[in-house]
Write a structure and sequence with these properties.
With 233 residues, the protein is α/β, with parallel strands linked by helices. The protein is 40% helix and 15% strand. The longest helix has 17 residues.
């Protein structure tokens, strides 16, 4: 079995999960948060090098205030409990514009990254206040600054220059992108990194019901596909 190096998952369907049960949307987010750990540990166990989960997008701020407030509370509580991952040797990285969060949240995320930095296992990436277009815009600004300061010539700019200025600097591009809930779009998630990813959309599974076996199903399908990267096999 060929295990993809970088698996990315859009954790979609929390609201629908709650609505089908006559529950408030926040109940779906709470249930969804409970699905995370088993998926992370399974991916680490089977040899995935990077797992990135889409936790909160730049567009999610447009949701009703009470839902956003509930999500922020849920994220804060999750951060408080992340030390439980230490014994599994995973590394943790946060991808996104963290400046939008409170100072205590930023400090906590920095502390977690530092605390886990000496681990040698899978990178557990959490995309938070993340948007693919926003990421590319920020990378363009960084590159423009280097050119303006004479640190980089225009003819030296290549794909590697862009990749070295992305949030995911130093990590492999996405091999497999999974989205439960039936939606068939990437929703501004890792759009540069997923240029040659295999997409696996799951119609009948909502994120709170997502389990390690669903990762295995996606990887089995990944192995059935012929990845040519524009060439011929």
């Amino acid at each position: 079995m060929n295990i993809p190096k970088h698996v990315a998952i859009i954790m979609d369907g929390n609201g629908r999960w709650a609505r089908r049960r006559g529950l408030p949307r926040k109940a779906g987010h709470i249930a969804g948060a409970k699905s995370i750990k088993s998926v992370v540990l399974h991916c680490n166990k089977i040899g995935v090098k990077v797992l990135t989960l889409y936790a909160f997008s730049t567009e999610n701020w447009q949701r009703p205030k009470d839902e956003v407030d509930g999500l922020m509370k849920l994220i804060k509580n999750y951060l408080k409990n992340m030390r439980s991952y230490l014994k599994y040797n995973v590394r943790i990285r946060f991808f996104g514009d963290l400046s939008a969060f409170s100072e205590d949240m930023i400090d906590k995320m920095n502390q977690i990254e530092q605390e886990f930095s000496k681990n040698t296992g899978m990178v557990f990436g959490i995309a938070i206040n993340y948007g693919g277009r926003d990421e590319l815009k920020n990378a363009a600004k960084k590159i423009a600054f280097l050119v303006k300061n004479g640190e980089l010539n225009l003819d030296e700019i290549d794909e590697q220059t862009v990749e070295s200025n992305l949030y995911t600097k130093g990590l492999p591009n996405v091999d497999l992108l999974i989205r439960p809930s039936g939606e068939c779009r990437v929703s501004n998630f890792l759009i540069w990194q997923s240029a040659y990813a295999e997409f696996y959309f799951m119609k009948d599974i909502l994120w709170p019901d997502f389990r390690p076996r669903h990762v295995d199903m996606a990887i089995e399908e990944y192995n059935r596909r012929n990845r040519t990267y524009g060439g011929v096999k």
